[in-house]
């Protein structure tokens, strides 16, 4: 087994809840609680879960856009959260983030060419007179035209802006790209274009992705490995094929049964979960999923299930498996 | 993308730079400003007042403090368009000279307070923590003291210490900036706080941009519209405060004329009732300039604030 490019070990990110006159911390939102992921070079790891399950926070904490509360993150064997500011900055080009919202992730006052090229200058990756050529190259490989280089963000559509966001990350020749719901703000036809672009770039450049999404069909299409998150914790991980063929955790089963299939006559068993995702500031005892789990037994209420290996590279956190 | 060059083959090497494709955000704003008639009128009045005050005296046959006893308190006539004052000085020339002082004081104190306020506000908002606490508590403290009484006390102290008249203008500038920076710093801090959480600032962090570039290429340009608006409104306020101070004899001292002390010297019943040419011109100058600057500032806000959309 090749060494992991990104290794996340028991990562925790708690947000304090402050209240009262003295702004005291009265509680914590455990946005990410004990998440462990290993991504090997060339893989695409899909992180799925409902809104508020902590997938984005996990991704952002993993590249230290936010500071962690506990655990460790190793990128190529280097512990990111112990690096000094300047060392971290120098490592940044190797791991890039693509944002969910293509509208707010581009500075409205910076021309596209500058937005893509400026990081090259700051990292000394290209001499000044070559920057424009590099930008033109990367624009072309992201399906944008050369004349876009002098335009401002407001002159582009959502899909084009997302391509710009991808180009901005790509120009640095990163090894890891964390894509934080990169297509959820786009309409379906554009989603397909962007996803195919991700795919093409992986084939031509051998990129490694951490792909965060709530859209299972997108994840199935793109990812080689999948992790399912619920309320800040991973409940199941495994290779795409194994996980889609035989989901083990009740939550995964419910999620998969909710994926629409384009065959109207096909009847299948649908597991409908009752209620909403519980308040992360006050998560249920024992297994966090027991309040909505159709198979829950008494033990689930009291005992936190271990995230254990159940053969191959599959891990599940459930008492019943 | 048709080429107008017709038969000439497009060069493969140089991707032709099209000047037409390069839109500028400033040009866009200027175009919007041209459509705002009220703001344009404000701008026109401001420019007119500046021209009048800084160029006008060059064409005047009189100087602002040449005393002429034979010409005391003459009503407006062909030789003295706005009449003369109690010492026979030409009122029009004095209004123009006074405008130089008033506008300079307004502009200079604006520059200083915008500089102070935006620098301190930006530091507080960007670095947060201790710097934020210290700067904003000082600002809060200054804002709890009503500025006018504070200025009065400072002005009275200046008179008590017999500060030479020539220096008073500069000290008045400093005083005005001193009382107006806290409000400014608070506004800038708020804007910086919201800007630094925007996703493009996070993107700049992920890209590993240097702090210098993050501040000057990403944060500051987004702050400029706010600063322009604040600055323009601040000039109006500073001119007004200076006039108030001078009216009470605590700002710039006669014989150096300012709009405020010109009104003050007409501050008696006879002048008020029988010699309106002594106080209407400086009063109207203050009124017109301040209102025009405020209207123009409001227009600028409308033009610059909304994010450019097609």
From TrEMBL, chain A:
Keyword Lipoprotein: no
GO molecular function: ATP binding; ATP hydrolysis activity
Residues making up the signal peptide according to the UniProt record: none
Domain ABC transporter: 17-256
Keywords, ordered alphabetically: ATP-binding, Nucleotide-binding, Transport
GO terms (BP aspect): peptide transport; transmembrane transport
Pfam family, one: ABC_tran
SMART domains reported in the protein's UniProt record: AAA (SM00382)
Family: Belongs to the ABC transporter superfamily.
Full protein name: ATP-binding cassette domain-containing protein
Organism: Cohnella nanjingensis
From TrEMBL, chain B:
Locations listed in the record: Cell membrane
Record-linked CDD domains: TM_PBP2 (cd06261)
GO annotation, biological process: transmembrane transport
SUPFAM superfamilies on file: MetI-like
Gene Ontology CC annotation, any one: plasma membrane
Its membrane topology: Multi-pass membrane protein
All residue ranges annotated as the ABC transmembrane type-1 domain in the record: 99-297
Membrane-crossing residue ranges in chain numbering: 38-59, 101-126, 138-158, 170-188, 219-240, 277-297
Keyword Transmembrane: yes
Keywords for the protein's UniProt record, in alphabetical order: Cell membrane, Membrane, Transmembrane, Transmembrane helix, Transport
Protein family membership: Belongs to the binding-protein-dependent transport system permease family.
Stated name of the protein: ABC transporter permease
Native species: Cohnella nanjingensis
Species classification: Bacteria, Bacillati, Bacillota, Bacilli, Bacillales
């Amino acid at each position: 087994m090749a060494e992991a490019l990104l290794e996340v070990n028991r990562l925790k990110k708690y947000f304090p809840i402050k209240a009262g006159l003295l702004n005291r911390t009265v509680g914590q939102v455990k946005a990410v609680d004990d998440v462990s992921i290993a991504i090997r070079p060339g893989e695409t790891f899909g992180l799925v879960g409902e809104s508020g399950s902590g997938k984005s926070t996990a991704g952002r904490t993993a590249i230290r856009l936010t500071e962690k509360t506990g655990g460790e993150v190793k990128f190529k064997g280097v512990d990111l959260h112990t690096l000094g500011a300047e060392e971290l900055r120098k490592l940044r080009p190797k791991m890039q983030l693509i944002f969910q919202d293509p509208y707010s992730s581009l500075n409205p006052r910076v021309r596209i060419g500058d937005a893509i090229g400026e990081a090259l200058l700051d990292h000394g990756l290209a001499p000044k007179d070559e920057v424009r050529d590099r930008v033109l190259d990367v624009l072309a490989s992201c399906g944008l035209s050369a004349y876009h280089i002098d335009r401002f963000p407001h002159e582009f559509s959502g899909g084009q802006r997302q391509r710009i966001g991808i180009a901005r990350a790509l120009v640095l020749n990163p090894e890891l790209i964390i894509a934080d719901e990169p297509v959820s703000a786009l309409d379906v036809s554009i989603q397909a274009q962007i996803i195919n672009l991700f795919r093409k770039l992986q084939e031509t450049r051998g990129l490694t992705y951490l792909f965060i999404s709530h859209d299972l069909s997108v994840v199935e299409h793109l990812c080689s490995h999948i992790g399912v998150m619920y309320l800040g914790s991973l409940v199941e991980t495994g290779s795409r094929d194994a996980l889609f063929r035989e989901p083990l955790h009740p939550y995964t089963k419910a999620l998969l049964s909710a994926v629409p299939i384009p065959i109207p006559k096909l009847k299948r068993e649908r597991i409908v979960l009752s209620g909403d995702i519980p308040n992360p500031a006050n998560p249920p005892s024992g297994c966090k999923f027991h309040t909505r789990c159709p198979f829950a037994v008494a033990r689930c209420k009291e005992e936190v299930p271990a995230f254990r290996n159940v053969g191959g590279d599959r891990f599940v956190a459930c008492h019943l498996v | 993308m048709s080429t107008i060059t017709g038969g000439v083959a497009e060069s493969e090497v140089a991707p032709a730079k099209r000047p037409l494709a390069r839109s500028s955000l400033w040009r866009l704003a200027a175009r919007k400003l041209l459509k705002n008639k009220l703001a344009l009128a404000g701008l026109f009045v401001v420019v007119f007042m500046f021209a009048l005050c800084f160029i006008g005296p060059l064409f005047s046959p009189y100087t602002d403090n040449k005393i002429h006893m034979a010409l005391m308190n003459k009503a407006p006539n062909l030789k003295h368009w706005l009449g003369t004052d109690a010492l026979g000085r030409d009122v029009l020339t004095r209004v123009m000279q006074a405008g130089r002082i008033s506008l300079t004081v307004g502009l200079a104190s604006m520059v200083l307070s915008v500089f102070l306020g935006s620098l301190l506000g930006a530091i507080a908002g960007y670095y947060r923590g201790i710097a934020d606490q210290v700067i904003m508590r000082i600002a809060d403290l200054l804002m709890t003291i009503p500025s006018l009484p504070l200025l009065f006390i400072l002005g009275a102290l200046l008179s008590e210490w017999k500060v030479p008249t020539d220096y008073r203008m500069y000290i008045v500038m400093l005083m005005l900036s001193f009382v107006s920076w806290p409000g400014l710093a608070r506004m800038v801090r708020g804007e910086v706080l919201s800007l630094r959480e925007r996703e493009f600032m996070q993107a700049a962090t992920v890209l590993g941009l240097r702090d210098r570039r993050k501040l000057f290429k990403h944060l500051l340009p987004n702050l400029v519209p706010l600063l322009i608006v604040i600055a323009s409104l601040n000039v109006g306020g500073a001119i007004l405060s200076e006039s108030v101070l001078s009216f009470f004899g605590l700002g710039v001292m006669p014989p150096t004329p300012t709009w405020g002390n010109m009104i003050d010297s007409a501050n008696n019943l006879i002048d008020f009732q029988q010699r309106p040419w002594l106080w209407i011109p400086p009063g109207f100058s203050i009124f017109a300039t301040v209102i025009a600057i405020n209207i123009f500032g409001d227009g600028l806000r409308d033009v610059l604030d909304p994010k450019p959309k097609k």
